[in-house]
Amino acid sequence: SSMLLGGLSIVVSPLVSLILDQIAHLPDTLPAACISSLITRPQRDKILKMVKNGTVQLLFITPESLQSDFLYHLQDFPKVNFVCVD
Description:
With 86 residues, this protein is an alpha/beta fold.
């Protein structure tokens, strides 16, 4: 549905291995990224920048990553069409 509506969809999931598997099997036409404790601060900043400029349409994030300053960045995100909590 992100492909049809444009904007951003956010999936909150605690299982990083499952997230990475899902991203690996997405079509190339649906750009996705993951924010978790397994990435570095510069990687996280790069992903947030990509989300803000619309390069990423599907963002997977772990619950612990929501406890950081992530919510502050929401104001700069494109329209969020869907949020799914797993």
